[in-house]
């Protein structure tokens, strides 16, 4: 349990960095946890859990983590928004609770009682489950998601951890052309596999990187290869400086139904500092183009980008005034592969920022949520939508409900069988992906066959 217990300690930042902590667990007819912090010891106990060996170990670990959290919280006087939870998907715990006979209207109380989740966060989870259960198709048998990865961008944002190549680099044009050809070939092979097995594509998501850095001709070729009219179809165009009226027309004619246009901030100084290479005016122009085409629009904003609470609130106000179908409120995560990895994660106004956003989008419905390590304030990312405009891909991917056939360098496919999830990762290096395409694609399809 050591790593799990260390995760609990890390949630409190530097508060206990120099304090000796000892956790002892004894199991008989009861589980007894002794937590010694410095010179003081606290004792906790509960009835020994029942079930198979794996389930018993999981529940003992959960109790030990919560005991440690309770002790550290009592000593420090700090009540964390997510209590003792350190996992990335609190909704999975809610679904597990329901599967064991829990009531839908009792989710918030269960999370607060079992994990000390603060009431405002617990209630968001309960609302998300309600939205998801209403929005999801009744039958997901034979349904799959198709993900297509374009690992190219027109500059690297400081907070980004995704592997991507800069299209402005020397030789990038030639590499991009070769990559597009290889990607189209892989999509064709994967689609034939799905067709032969009677699988139906529930949603398509083209992400990256920034797929909209492709030229109009390459976007058209890519969409022709996908050819999934009738399915939910999302195209990631996160960088406003990569989007043109011509590209949007190609997307619309190619079956795209949803587009992501993400400012992250409407503060030009923040955009420049984070390496975005575009202005808020560029975002408004790109948004207008997408709205004029009648596409459903998602926008992302990030709380904690080394700016004031007032700066963030102006961003939230600006996005709310546009009234997009979807808004995702991210909390900055200093990921290991990002340029911000070694910077100070402390942001004194982070909860003020997120709570302002939650109020500002109070007329929207929260419909998906996930957490990441090293998030400012140990908070979360929440997707909000207007009723009936939920992105099914976001729900099925976050809740891991259907298999994901992922194409492209750095993409990760998921096989789901009997509640067990297995993953197949394609090589991140674009050159290696192109060189080994046939061999790797064959292995991926064998992976989906369970071989």
Report on the structure:
The protein is α/β, with parallel strands linked by helices and about 450 residues long. The protein has two domains: about 1-80; about 145-405, Aldolase class I (TIM Barrel, Alpha-Beta Barrel). The protein has helices at about 1-10, 55-75, 90-100, 105-115, 120-135, 170-195, 215-225, 245-255, 270-275, 280-290, 310-320, 350-360, 390-400, 430-435, 435-450; strands at about 20-25, 30-35, 40-45, 145-150, 150-155, 165, 200-210, 230-235, 260, 295-305, 325-330, 365-370, 380-385, 405, 410-415, 420-425. A nine-stranded mixed sheet has the order 12-13-11-10-9-8-7-4-14, with helices on both faces. A three-stranded antiparallel sheet has the order 1-2-3, with helices on one face. Strands 5-6 form a two-stranded parallel ribbon. A hairpin with a 2-residue loop joins strand 1 (about 20-25) and strand 2. The longest helix is centred in the middle third of the chain and has 25 residues, at about 170-195. The radius of gyration is 23 Å and the shape is globular.
């Amino acid at each position: 349990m050591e790593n799990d217990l260390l995760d609990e300690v890390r949630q409190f930042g530097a508060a206990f960095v120099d304090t000796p902590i000892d956790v002892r667990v004894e199991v008989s007819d009861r589980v007894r946890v002794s937590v010694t912090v410095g010179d003081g010891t606290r004792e906790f106990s509960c009835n020994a859990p029942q079930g198979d060996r794996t389930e018993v170990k999981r529940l003992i670990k959960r109790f030990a983590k919560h005991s440690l959290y309770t002790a550290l919280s009592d000593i420090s006087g700090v009540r964390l928004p997510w209590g003792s939870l350190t996992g990335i998907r609190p909704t999975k715990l809610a679904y597990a609770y329901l599967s064991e006979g829990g009531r839908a209207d009792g989710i918030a109380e269960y999370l607060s009682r079992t994990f000390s989740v603060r009431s405002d966060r617990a209630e968001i989870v309960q609302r998300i489950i309600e939205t998801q259960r209403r929005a999801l198709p009744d039958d997901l048998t034979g349904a799959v998601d198709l993900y297509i990865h374009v690992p190219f961008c027109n500059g690297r944002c400081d907070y980004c951890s995704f592997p991507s190549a800069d299209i402005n680099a020397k030789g990038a044009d030639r590499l991009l052309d070769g990559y597009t050809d290889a990607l189209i070939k892989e999509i064709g092979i994967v689609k034939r596999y799905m067709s032969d097995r009677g699988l139906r594509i529930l949603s398509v998501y083209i992400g990256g990187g920034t797929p909209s850095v492709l030229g109009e001709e390459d976007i058209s070729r890519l969409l022709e290869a996908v050819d999934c009219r009738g399915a939910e179809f999302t195209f990631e165009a996160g960088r406003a400086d990569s989007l043109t009226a011509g590209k949007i027309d190609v997307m619309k004619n190619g079956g795209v139904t949803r587009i992501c246009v993400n400012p992250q901030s409407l503060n030009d100084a923040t955009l420049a500092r984070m390496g975005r290479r575009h202005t808020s005016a560029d975002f408004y122009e790109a948004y207008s183009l997408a709205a004029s085409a009648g596409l459903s629009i998602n926008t992302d904003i990030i709380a904690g980008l080394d700016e004031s609470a007032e700066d963030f609130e102006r961003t939230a106000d600006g996005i709310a005034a546009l009234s997009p179908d979807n808004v995702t409120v991210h909390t900055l995560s200093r990921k290991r592969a990002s340029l911000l990895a070694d910077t100070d994660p402390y942001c004194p106004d982070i909860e003020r920022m997120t709570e302002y956003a939650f109020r500002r989008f109070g007329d929207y419905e929260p419909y998906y949520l996930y957490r990441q390590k090293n998030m400012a304030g140990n908070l979360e990312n929440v997707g909000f939508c207007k009723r009936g405009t939920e992105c099914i891909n976001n729900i099925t991917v976050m809740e891991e409900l259907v298999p994901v056939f992922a194409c492209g360098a750095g993409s990760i496919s998921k096989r789901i069988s009997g509640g067990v999830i297995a993953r197949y990762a394609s090589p991140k290096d674009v050159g290696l992906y192109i060189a080994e395409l046939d061999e790797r694609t064959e292995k991926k399809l064998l992976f989906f066959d369970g071989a």
